Fold this sequence. Notes:
Helix content is 45%, strand content 17%. By secondary structure, it is of the alpha/beta class.
Amino acid sequence: AHWERQGSFDMKTEHFDLKGAESLPKPINGRPPILNAAGSGLGREFATRNADFLFTSAPDLARTKDEIVALKEQARGKGREVEVLTFSHVVCRPTEKEAQDYVDYFTGDNADWDAVDNLMNLQISHAQSFPHDLLMQMRQLFAMGHGGVPLIGTPEQVADKICDLHAAGLGGTTLSFVDYTKEFPYFRDNVLPILEARGIRQPD
Length: 204
């Protein structure tokens, strides 16, 4: 691999004709981890063959748990191990009502439904990445946070939902917020200690 090779190299392929090329800087710990986003069967087959981490949606944790088992078996059949990751959006407040009121505020009258439907048509309908019975549920999730797993409620409730992701076999999740700079500090100070106490997150 070019990230392990020292010095310059030549490479001629269908798309590249390189002479005296160098790959710098080298990864600190050898080969870098390879991530691949995949929702379709073809994409997941590619990811289990080539990637270390498969990044996908998890709209239904019961389905996702079964899918993760199947994906890991698929990767092992190719002599590989793969971790499955997903993406989430967070609305964390001192009370459940405050959190839900805010979700209702930005996904109700303030949602851009034309944009939501256009995004879904681009990412789901044509790609056929999701079962059809999930599409209506996904519409609300796209308005909330691009179709990610909703982590909504008090710090304890949000921590519970992250633990549910872990229990389903997911190796991790990204986190998005409506207003990251204002909302993340509350999450950091009130949710992360719960996750550390439960052994889901390593302390700094």
